[in-house]
Design goal:
Elements lengths: L11 E6 L6 E6 L4 H16 L10
Antiparallel strand pairs: 1-2
C-alpha cells in the first residue's frame, strides 16, 4: 500500500494476510520493489509457516 507520507524514511506498507486465521504480517518499507517483497515472503512467511498453497496479490 502507498505511497504514504514519509516517516523515518518509510513510505510503503507491505501486508500479508492469512484469510483463514486472519493473521496479519505488516512491514513498513522504503521502496515497493520486487526484491523486497521476495525477501519479506521468504523470511516472514515461508520460513515461519511453510509454503502456502496459493498466493494472491492486488495487481
Amino acid at each position: 500500500m502507498g505511497p504514504f507520507p514519509v516517516s523515518y524514511g518509510y513510505s510503503y506498507i507491505l501486508l500479508a494476510i492469512d484469510y483463514v486465521s486472519k493473521w496479519v504480517e505488516a512491514k513498513a518499507t522504503k521502496t515497493n520493489d520486487s526484491k523486497f517483497v521476495v525477501d519479506f515472503v521468504r523470511s516472514n512467511i515461508f520460513c515461519r509457516f511453510g509454503v502456502p498453497k496459493a498466493i494472491n496479490n492486488d495487481r
